[in-house]
Hints:
It is a single chain. It is built from ten helices and four strands; from the N terminus they run βαβββααααααααα. The chain has helices at 13-25, 67-77, 86-101, 104-109, 125-145, 158-173, 179-190, 192-202, 213-216, 218-228, and strands at residues 2-6, 29-33, 56-59, 62-64. Strands 2-1-3-4 form a four-stranded mixed sheet.
Amino acid sequence: MVKLYLGNKNYSSWSLRGWFAAKLSGAPFEEVPVQLVNGGRNPKNKGFSPSGYVPVLHDGDTVVWDTLAIAEYLAERHPGMWPADKAVRAWARSIAAEMHSSFQALRNDMTMCVRERVDVRPWSPELTADIARVEEIWSEGRRRHAKLGPFLCGAVSLADAFYAPVAFRFQTYGVHPAGAAGDYLKALLAHPLTKEWERDALAESTIIEADEPRVVYRAKLAARDQAAR
């Protein structure tokens, strides 16, 4: 059976992408939990992960260790994971690749912590620009494909897998997009796969301080609380 090595579900945004893709394939797979460490890359993972990161997919002797590569590997074997229409598929791949390679401020300033709710405004200009770009993509997806369904390309696809961690980040940090982008956020958070991941994340008790918003933003939150007194 295919094995998918995954980090802590409360924190690991990359693992969520790989897991969502594997679930979307419809094929059975075994989840192998891997404890994340502060700082990301873990040399102890090298026995199963060439990069030292998760997620990693093992299919017999084939090892795939990047989320975009995992998505494409699965899509080659299981139809329907990308949109069937050529133009829609090209757009879906483009926005997935953009999320895979960009949005550094969003990753750094809004660590994924599914169970947390915290407001860390004011945001940096870089983070504000990243949020605006995400909202632009979501609005464009709904404008283009609203007649086909509630997700970025109508029916749920690999494009949504790459934005599922952003949905949790927006939920955690109180980002509330207006209009079509907000409707998409609600639809993605309500999807059965997203709800399943959230349920598992909320059941975890491990604390990783490097990914805890109230630790990352301790000084900022303390200063704001002091000013409000």
